Amino acid sequence: MKINGNTLLEGSRVVLVPYKKHHVPKYHGWMQSVELQQLTASEPLTLEQEYEMQNSWWQDENKCTFIVLDKNSWQSADRTEIDSMIGDVNLFFTNQECPTEAEIEIMIAEPASRRKGAGREALITMMAYGVQELRVTEYVAKIGYSNHGSLSLFHKLGFTEVSRSDVFQEVTLRLPISDDIRTWLGQETSHISKHTYEEHSR
Protein backbone atom coordinates (compact mmCIF):
# COMPACT_ATOMS: atom_id res chain seq x y z
CA MET A 1 0.00 0.00 0.00
CA LYS A 2 1.46 3.32 -1.07
CA ILE A 3 -0.68 5.57 1.13
CA ASN A 4 1.83 5.38 3.99
CA GLY A 5 4.89 5.62 1.72
CA ASN A 6 5.93 9.03 3.07
CA THR A 7 4.61 8.64 6.62
CA LEU A 8 6.74 8.47 9.77
CA LEU A 9 4.95 8.01 13.10
CA GLU A 10 7.03 8.88 16.16
CA GLY A 11 6.09 7.65 19.62
CA SER A 12 7.87 7.52 22.96
CA ARG A 13 9.36 4.04 22.51
CA VAL A 14 9.07 3.31 18.79
CA VAL A 15 9.08 4.98 15.40
CA LEU A 16 7.08 3.52 12.51
CA VAL A 17 8.39 3.95 8.96
CA PRO A 18 7.18 2.50 5.64
CA TYR A 19 8.72 -0.80 4.53
CA LYS A 20 11.26 0.06 1.80
CA LYS A 21 13.80 -1.89 -0.24
CA HIS A 22 16.70 -0.95 2.03
CA HIS A 23 14.95 -2.68 4.93
CA VAL A 24 14.73 -6.02 3.10
CA PRO A 25 18.14 -7.56 3.93
CA LYS A 26 17.65 -7.22 7.70
CA TYR A 27 14.02 -8.34 7.45
CA HIS A 28 15.18 -11.35 5.45
CA GLY A 29 17.72 -12.16 8.14
CA TRP A 30 15.00 -12.11 10.79
CA MET A 31 12.85 -14.51 8.82
CA GLN A 32 15.55 -17.17 8.76
CA SER A 33 14.74 -17.72 12.44
CA VAL A 34 12.76 -20.92 12.99
CA GLU A 35 11.12 -19.31 16.03
CA LEU A 36 9.83 -16.35 13.99
CA GLN A 37 8.70 -18.64 11.17
CA GLN A 38 6.62 -20.58 13.67
CA LEU A 39 5.24 -17.50 15.43
CA THR A 40 4.26 -15.83 12.14
CA ALA A 41 3.26 -19.01 10.26
CA SER A 42 5.74 -18.07 7.54
CA GLU A 43 7.88 -20.03 5.11
CA PRO A 44 11.54 -19.02 4.57
CA LEU A 45 12.20 -17.08 1.36
CA THR A 46 15.37 -16.37 -0.59
CA LEU A 47 16.64 -12.79 -0.51
CA GLU A 48 15.44 -12.31 -4.09
CA GLN A 49 11.98 -13.56 -3.14
CA GLU A 50 11.98 -11.20 -0.13
CA TYR A 51 12.64 -8.24 -2.43
CA GLU A 52 9.80 -9.40 -4.69
CA MET A 53 7.51 -9.71 -1.66
CA GLN A 54 8.38 -6.20 -0.46
CA ASN A 55 7.58 -4.78 -3.89
CA SER A 56 4.35 -6.80 -4.08
CA TRP A 57 3.20 -5.48 -0.72
CA TRP A 58 4.15 -1.95 -1.76
CA GLN A 59 1.95 -2.25 -4.85
CA ASP A 60 -0.94 -4.07 -3.10
CA GLU A 61 -3.64 -1.66 -1.93
CA ASN A 62 -4.91 -4.33 0.49
CA LYS A 63 -1.73 -4.39 2.59
CA CYS A 64 -0.27 -1.69 4.81
CA THR A 65 3.11 -2.25 6.46
CA PHE A 66 5.31 -0.24 8.79
CA ILE A 67 8.76 -1.20 10.02
CA VAL A 68 9.13 -0.71 13.77
CA LEU A 69 12.26 1.13 14.93
CA ASP A 70 13.57 1.42 18.47
CA LYS A 71 13.36 5.16 19.14
CA ASN A 72 16.40 5.42 21.41
CA SER A 73 18.54 3.68 18.81
CA TRP A 74 17.01 5.73 15.98
CA GLN A 75 17.90 8.97 17.78
CA SER A 76 21.49 7.88 18.40
CA ALA A 77 24.03 9.53 16.09
CA ASP A 78 26.07 6.33 15.81
CA ARG A 79 23.13 4.08 14.92
CA THR A 80 21.54 3.78 11.48
CA GLU A 81 17.89 3.24 10.65
CA ILE A 82 18.71 -0.36 9.77
CA ASP A 83 20.46 -0.82 13.12
CA SER A 84 17.30 0.46 14.81
CA MET A 85 14.89 -2.02 13.18
CA ILE A 86 13.16 -4.27 15.72
CA GLY A 87 10.05 -5.57 13.92
CA ASP A 88 7.06 -4.77 11.76
CA VAL A 89 3.31 -4.19 12.00
CA ASN A 90 0.81 -4.93 9.24
CA LEU A 91 -2.78 -4.48 8.16
CA PHE A 92 -4.44 -6.77 5.61
CA PHE A 93 -7.75 -5.88 3.96
CA THR A 94 -8.96 -9.22 2.63
CA ASN A 95 -12.65 -9.42 3.57
CA GLN A 96 -14.52 -8.47 0.39
CA GLU A 97 -17.84 -8.57 2.24
CA CYS A 98 -16.55 -6.02 4.77
CA PRO A 99 -13.83 -3.87 3.14
CA THR A 100 -13.33 -1.84 6.32
CA GLU A 101 -12.32 -4.92 8.32
CA ALA A 102 -8.56 -5.30 8.71
CA GLU A 103 -6.47 -8.19 9.96
CA ILE A 104 -3.65 -6.83 12.12
CA GLU A 105 -0.30 -8.44 12.85
CA ILE A 106 2.71 -7.40 14.88
CA MET A 107 6.18 -8.92 15.10
CA ILE A 108 8.92 -7.77 17.45
CA ALA A 109 11.77 -9.73 15.89
CA GLU A 110 14.58 -8.60 18.16
CA PRO A 111 14.41 -10.58 21.43
CA ALA A 112 16.09 -7.75 23.38
CA SER A 113 13.22 -5.42 22.43
CA ARG A 114 10.41 -7.65 23.69
CA ARG A 115 8.39 -7.09 26.86
CA LYS A 116 9.43 -3.45 27.04
CA GLY A 117 6.28 -1.79 25.74
CA ALA A 118 7.50 -1.45 22.15
CA GLY A 119 5.00 -3.96 20.78
CA ARG A 120 2.10 -2.32 22.60
CA GLU A 121 2.93 1.16 21.37
CA ALA A 122 3.52 -0.03 17.80
CA LEU A 123 0.24 -1.96 17.80
CA ILE A 124 -1.86 0.87 19.21
CA THR A 125 -0.23 3.36 16.84
CA MET A 126 -1.10 1.16 13.86
CA MET A 127 -4.64 0.63 15.15
CA ALA A 128 -5.17 4.39 15.44
CA TYR A 129 -3.64 4.97 12.00
CA GLY A 130 -5.96 2.37 10.49
CA VAL A 131 -9.04 3.92 12.07
CA GLN A 132 -8.12 7.53 11.31
CA GLU A 133 -6.50 7.19 7.87
CA LEU A 134 -7.87 3.95 6.40
CA ARG A 135 -11.39 3.97 7.88
CA VAL A 136 -11.06 0.62 9.65
CA THR A 137 -14.24 -0.32 11.55
CA GLU A 138 -13.16 -3.71 12.92
CA TYR A 139 -9.87 -5.45 13.62
CA VAL A 140 -9.20 -9.18 13.38
CA ALA A 141 -6.10 -10.93 14.70
CA LYS A 142 -5.05 -14.54 14.11
CA ILE A 143 -2.50 -15.71 16.65
CA GLY A 144 -0.86 -19.09 17.15
CA TYR A 145 -1.71 -21.11 20.23
CA SER A 146 1.92 -20.98 21.39
CA ASN A 147 2.32 -17.22 20.99
CA HIS A 148 1.37 -16.42 24.58
CA GLY A 149 2.91 -12.94 24.53
CA SER A 150 0.81 -11.76 21.60
CA LEU A 151 -2.35 -13.38 22.92
CA SER A 152 -1.91 -11.60 26.24
CA LEU A 153 -1.23 -8.25 24.54
CA PHE A 154 -4.26 -8.42 22.26
CA HIS A 155 -6.55 -9.46 25.12
CA LYS A 156 -5.32 -6.52 27.20
CA LEU A 157 -6.20 -4.19 24.31
CA GLY A 158 -9.80 -5.39 24.31
CA PHE A 159 -9.75 -8.07 21.61
CA THR A 160 -12.02 -11.02 22.33
CA GLU A 161 -11.71 -14.59 21.11
CA VAL A 162 -14.27 -15.63 18.50
CA SER A 163 -12.90 -18.96 17.28
CA ARG A 164 -10.10 -21.53 17.43
CA SER A 165 -8.60 -23.65 14.68
CA ASP A 166 -6.86 -26.83 15.73
CA VAL A 167 -5.87 -27.37 12.09
CA PHE A 168 -3.93 -24.09 11.92
CA GLN A 169 -3.23 -24.04 15.68
CA GLU A 170 -4.44 -20.46 15.96
CA VAL A 171 -6.96 -18.29 17.77
CA THR A 172 -9.04 -15.64 15.99
CA LEU A 173 -9.71 -12.45 17.95
CA ARG A 174 -11.88 -9.46 17.06
CA LEU A 175 -12.24 -5.83 18.12
CA PRO A 176 -15.10 -3.76 16.64
CA ILE A 177 -14.29 -0.04 16.63
CA SER A 178 -16.99 1.53 18.76
CA ASP A 179 -17.09 5.23 19.65
CA ASP A 180 -15.53 4.35 23.00
CA ILE A 181 -12.68 2.44 21.34
CA ARG A 182 -12.14 5.28 18.88
CA THR A 183 -11.91 7.78 21.76
CA TRP A 184 -9.58 5.47 23.71
CA LEU A 185 -7.27 5.06 20.72
CA GLY A 186 -7.12 8.82 20.32
CA GLN A 187 -6.17 9.22 23.97
CA GLU A 188 -3.59 6.42 23.88
CA THR A 189 -1.88 7.91 20.81
CA SER A 190 -2.16 11.61 21.64
CA HIS A 191 1.64 11.70 22.04
CA ILE A 192 2.29 10.24 18.57
CA SER A 193 3.63 12.77 16.09
CA LYS A 194 3.35 12.37 12.33
CA HIS A 195 6.18 13.46 10.04
CA THR A 196 7.21 13.11 6.41
CA TYR A 197 9.46 10.09 5.96
CA GLU A 198 12.60 10.72 3.98
CA GLU A 199 15.07 8.02 3.00
CA HIS A 200 18.56 8.94 4.04
CA SER A 201 21.87 7.39 4.87
CA ARG A 202 21.39 7.03 8.63
From TrEMBL:
GO terms for molecular function: N-acetyltransferase activity. Pfam families: Acetyltransf_3. Residues 34-178 form the N-acetyltransferase domain. PROSITE patterns: GNAT (PS51186). Keywords: Acyltransferase, Transferase. Belongs to the acetyltransferase family. GNAT subfamily. This is N-acetyltransferase 9-like protein. It comes from Branchiostoma lanceolatum (Common lancelet).
